[in-house]
Design goal:
Blueprint lengths: L9 H13 L4 H10 L4 H13 L5 H14 L5 H10 L4 H9 L3 H18 L5 H14 L4 H8 L7
Helix pairs in contact: 4-5, 4-6, 5-6, 7-8, 7-9
């Protein structure tokens, strides 16, 4: 009902603030957690609004932290990070802002390191097959074709 104020149980708000303070969360993750507590949907909206007001929940900050972690720790490419954030219903603007925070030079260096490591693991002697496997690997990690071409054709990257 519009206009009706929902009372947030203290234990629920306490638990969910702890959940959000432990690490950055997005709205989808918070909804899932609240659902696991048995919180009704209309009360979830009230709690989420309160979490945003109190700065426990911030999807722009979440997108930035998620992107940074997935790139630096898991070595994911931009397209894989983009799809993962889309699945979490993070607004497009926040996703694009977060992806723009990745330094282009660091991005290419990371891809180069991944490809060099993978190249050492490939047993195939045929250069075309080897390159195809490397390209497929880079795509599976979420790197885009232009970045892959740029790295594989660069002077710094030699097989």
């Amino acid at each position: 009902m519009p206009g009706k104020q929902h009372k947030i149980p203290e234990w629920t708000y306490s638990k969910i603030t702890h959940y959000c303070a432990y690490q950055e969360r997005c709205v989808v993750e918070v909804r899932v957690k609240l659902k696991s507590f048995g919180v009704k949907e209309e009360l979830q909206d009230t709690i989420i609004a309160e979490l945003m007001k109190d700065d426990y929940l911030n999807e722009k900050r979440f997108a930035s932290m998620f992107t940074s972690g997935r790139f630096r720790i898991k070595k994911w490419g931009k397209s894989k990070i983009y799809r993962a954030l889309q699945q979490k219903n993070v607004p497009e603007l926040f996703i694009l802002d977060a992806l723009n925070e990745i330094d282009d030079l660091e991005y290419c260096q990371t891809l180069g390191q991944l490809l060099k490591k993978k190249n050492g693991e490939i047993k195939d002697e045929d250069l075309k097959k080897r390159n195809r496997k490397l390209i497929n690997f880079a795509h599976s990690k979420g790197y885009e074709a232009p970045a892959i071409r740029k790295v594989m054709n660069s002077e710094d990257y030699c097989l």
